[in-house]
Inverse folding.
């Protein structure tokens, strides 16, 4: 399933890498950005100490005033609730506005995923969608499959229109086994 | 009014035909699409998936009131306001008033065909509100002051240089026509818009009753921004987008991108339920459910399946007419086959009148529609309605009503025509030129002469000495076999006799009625159906064999439909339908004759053209190939073997000869590219068209019916 996920994601222009620790993740991210990084509050990333690890690599981490900082940020970093193997899709509970700004405005999106949270396909995801709805009355759930794209001019595929141009998935075992946690 | 309308339409056809790069672009896209789609469905059961969607959507139509109530209840419980708009004006008024109440000056929009349908931007402008389209394609056509020419790719008709010029006007500098550069310009120019706007307007691909949420299937990411940054979000959603559950929504989501662009999934699927956080507070979410003709459509038993449409645009992608003239001709707001139907219900029959006739009836759309809509069948029905409303043209009406229905008169007139044509045929079988007024008919294809003696007159002279025949079958010849290509009838007898089958020719048979039906004269079609049923069943044949797949469809499908409510005829129509079979299938499936005709002298290289009505109507395409290969010929596949040849009966004579000519030229190129010396097919109409094109262009490829090629193997 992990292989299928990685293959599908690569096909749509996503990048996949494996990391063992928050420090490795921070090194990977720090080597690929210019500018600040948006890091909204997410329990799995907090437990892993990602903010500190990024700062240790010299990265400026934004943790508030999203609307003000997001437009100029170089990258957004998030966890992932779970993923779908057949299409290479990430599922993110993006109800918090900070999550949405982080994954829409910057040119790069880094997503940390525990490989134990991969489902076979979108039909398997339905019970979890229902679960989100049961837990909270209002939600904004995002399926993200690769970077932003268009073929609106002469049907030529072009990556990065309004959303991120790059999507990096960092597979980190032990990050979180909870499908409702980011 | 209708004259004026028709003149404008003709002008658009001419302009489109004079834009070869448009045709080239749409052809290239169509080819790439077919491959991408095939890959996207690899390992999946498309037929099962579309049956599921069709059933689900029918359920939604039947229970729409309950589902609207359920959706509204759940959406409002999550903090949304739901408004049911009866008409386009109603929806526009609600949105414009909302904007004015909140002092909205600027709106950002993500792609919404429903807002194109209602002309929302115009209404907003009238209310002093500026609307900015943020989908790249929509922005391009907004700048150009045009309307979409495709439901999924609105600017598919535009080219990079045109886009660069438009963008240059916005930026005030010369922009290069490098596509990544242009995309970057759009990103930069539109970005600030999301922050400045006080309202975001989106459509929705699904509205889920179970949750009261909506889902958006998109690629660019603009919908995520437009539904996040502005304080107010308005979703304008056609009522047909309702689905009962999250499973149902997921099933639509699995199919839509695959069938639209060949993607497994779009970059983004966004599930929004209720008024989510926005800035320091909550968003104000309004969901406008749009009726605007959908309830009327739901009440039309003949047309209502169109409500199953999930707006994937595939019916355009594969349509030979669309590929030839584009969506500004073959469309109003909604384009292509589904556009014909939706235009009739959402924008009035008047606006659909020309479009209804522009369909060539090849059923390519029906084969790819993920909602299993019989688009061609519905368009035919609309043609009948229009025939009643506007009349079908006095000349045609006269021929159908007074001549065709009277078989003897009809047939004696064809005989008379055979004599009259003598001066132009000069004794040949093909007419290469016609004088003056008629000359346009032979400009791009030769036409066959009407035979001196029709098949019905020579039939008795063909001896059939069979001792104990396996079957006695009746031959339904159709007009072309009877009066134009009688020799095919002789070949049929020869081939079937060789398989120990006796063939007889019921003389009372008449035209199958398709020309009348396809022109919208149902009454004549009914009269002809009754005559033919009577004639064909009279001598209790084991089978009724055809050589023309359009006739086959008529006998198998149309007669049933035409007579279904008539207790006297319905049962007989069923009987006839059950025993009707086209000749290639008959030989392979019923007579096991695959390997009987073996001696094709000299290993001719043959390519095969799939006739629309044979492949997509009767589901036959393997059998003729098996017969040809079995006869020792080398069968090579041409590209687009099942693409229409452009015949379409009166389509290529009177309604759209200019479009038909282009479609034929595509076919001739594909045939030539195979290097075959013969193209086989199972339809006399296709033979007329393809042979005519090959002859006119002086190609040394012969066009033959499979039955003729089998007869050639016999002494
Ligand atoms: S009619 Fe069918 S093929 Fe055409 S857009 Fe609708 S769902 Fe797609």
């Amino acid at each position: 399933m992990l292989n299928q996920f990685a293959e599908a994601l690569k096909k749509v222009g996503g990048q996949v890498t494996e990391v063992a620790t928050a420090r490795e993740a921070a090194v990977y991210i720090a080597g690929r950005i210019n500018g600040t990084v948006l890091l909204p509050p997410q329990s799995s990333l907090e437990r892993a100490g990602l903010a500190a690890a990024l700062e240790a690599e010299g990265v400026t981490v934004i943790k508030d005033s999203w609307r003000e900082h997001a437009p100029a940020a170089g990258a957004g970093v998030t966890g992932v609730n779970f993923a779908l193997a057949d299409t290479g899709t990430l599922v993110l509970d993006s109800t918090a506005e900070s999550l949405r700004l982080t994954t829409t405005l910057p040119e790069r999106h880094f997503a940390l995923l525990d490989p134990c949270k991969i489902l076979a396909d979108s039909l398997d995801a339905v019970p979890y969608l229902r679960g989100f709805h049961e837990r909270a009355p209002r939600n904004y759930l995002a399926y993200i499959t690769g970077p932003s794209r268009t073929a609106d001019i002469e049907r030529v595929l072009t990556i990065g229109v309004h959303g991120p141009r790059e999507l990096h998935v960092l597979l980190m075992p032990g990050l979180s086994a909870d499908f409702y946690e980011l | 009014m209708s004259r004026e309308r028709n003149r404008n339409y003709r002008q658009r056809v001419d302009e489109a035909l004079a834009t070869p790069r448009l045709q080239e672009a749409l052809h290239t896209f169509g080819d790439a699409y077919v491959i991408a789609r095939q890959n996207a469905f690899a390992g999946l059961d498309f037929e099962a998936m579309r049956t599921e969607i069709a059933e689900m959507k029918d359920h939604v139509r039947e229970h729409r009131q309950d589902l609207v109530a359920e959706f509204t209840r759940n959406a409002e419980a999550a903090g949304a306001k739901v408004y049911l708009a009866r008409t386009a004006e109603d929806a526009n008024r609600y949105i414009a008033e909302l904007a004015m109440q909140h002092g909205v000056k600027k709106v950002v929009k993500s792609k919404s065909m429903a807002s194109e349908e209602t002309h929302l931007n115009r209404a907003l402008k009238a209310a002093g509100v500026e609307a900015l389209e943020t989908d790249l394609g929509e922005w391009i056509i907004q700048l150009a002051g045009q309307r979409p020419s495709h439901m999924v790719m609105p600017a598919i008709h535009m080219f990079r240089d045109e886009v660069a010029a438009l963008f240059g006007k916005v930026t005030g500098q010369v922009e290069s026509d490098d596509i990544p550069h242009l995309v970057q310009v759009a990103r930069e120019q539109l970005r600030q818009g999301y922050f400045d706007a006080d309202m975001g307007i989106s459509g929705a691909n699904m509205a889920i009753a179970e949750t009261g949420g909506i889902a958006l299937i998109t690629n660019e990411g603009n919908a995520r921004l437009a539904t996040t940054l502005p304080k107010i979000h308005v979703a304008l959603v056609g009522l047909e987008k309702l689905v009962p559950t999250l499973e149902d929504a997921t099933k639509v989501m699995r199919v839509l991108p695959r069938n639209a662009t060949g993607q497994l999934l779009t970059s983004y699927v966004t599930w929004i339920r209720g008024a989510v956080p926005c800035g320091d507070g909550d968003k104000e979410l309004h969901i406008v459910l749009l009726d605007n003709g959908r309830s009327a459509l739901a009440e039309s038993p003949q047309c209502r399946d169109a409500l199953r449409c999930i707006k994937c645009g595939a019916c355009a992608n594969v349509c030979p007419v669309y590929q030839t003239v584009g969506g500004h001709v073959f469309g109003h707001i909604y384009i292509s086959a589904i556009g014909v139907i939706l235009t009739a219900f959402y924008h009035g029959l008047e606006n659909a009148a020309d479009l209804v006739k522009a369909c060539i009836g090849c059923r390519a759309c029906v084969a790819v529609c993920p909602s299993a809509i019989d688009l061609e069948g519905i368009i035919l029905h609309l043609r009948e309605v229009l025939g009643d409303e506007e009349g079908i043209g006095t000349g045609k009406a006269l021929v159908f009503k007074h001549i065709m229905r009277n078989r003897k008169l009809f047939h004696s007139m064809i005989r008379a025509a055979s004599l009259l044509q003598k001066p132009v045929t000069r004794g040949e079988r093909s007419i290469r030129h016609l004088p003056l007024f008629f000359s346009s008919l032979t400009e791009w294809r030769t036409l066959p002469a009407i035979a001196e003696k029709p098949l019905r007159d020579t039939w008795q002279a063909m001896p059939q000495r069979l001792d104990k025949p396996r079957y006695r079958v009746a031959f339904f010849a159709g007009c072309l076999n009877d009066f134009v290509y009688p020799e095919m009838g002789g070949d049929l007898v020869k081939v079937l006799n060789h398989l120990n089958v006796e063939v007889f020719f019921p003389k009372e048979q008449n035209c199958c009625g398709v020309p009348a039906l396809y022109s919208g004269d149902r009454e004549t079609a009914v009269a002809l159906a009754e005559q033919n049923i009577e004639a064909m069943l009279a001598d209790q044949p084991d089978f009724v064999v055809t050589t023309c797949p359009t006739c086959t469809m008529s006998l198998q499908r149309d007669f049933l439909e035409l007579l279904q409510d008539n207790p006297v005829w319905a049962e007989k129509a069923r009987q006839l339908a059950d025993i009707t079979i086209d000749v290639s299938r008959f030989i392979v499936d019923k007579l096991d004759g695959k390997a009987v005709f073996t001696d094709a002298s000299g290993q001719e290289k043959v390519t095969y053209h799939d006739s629309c009505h044979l492949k997509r109507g009767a589901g036959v395409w393997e059998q003729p190939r098996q017969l040809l290969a079995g006869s020792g010929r080398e069968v090579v596949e041409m590209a687009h073997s099942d693409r229409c040849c452009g015949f379409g009966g009166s389509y290529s004579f009177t309604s759209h000869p200019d479009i038909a000519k282009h479609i034929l030229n595509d076919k001739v190129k594909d045939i030539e590219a195979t290097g075959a010396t013969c193209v086989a097919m199972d339809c006399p109409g296709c033979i007329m068209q393809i042979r005519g094109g090959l002859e006119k262009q002086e190609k040394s490829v012969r066009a033959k019916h499979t039955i003729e090629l089998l007869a050639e193997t016999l002494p």
About this structure: Residues B 309-315, 338, 365, 368-371, 373, 375 surround iron/sulfur cluster (CB under 6 Å). The mean pLDDT of chain B is 92.
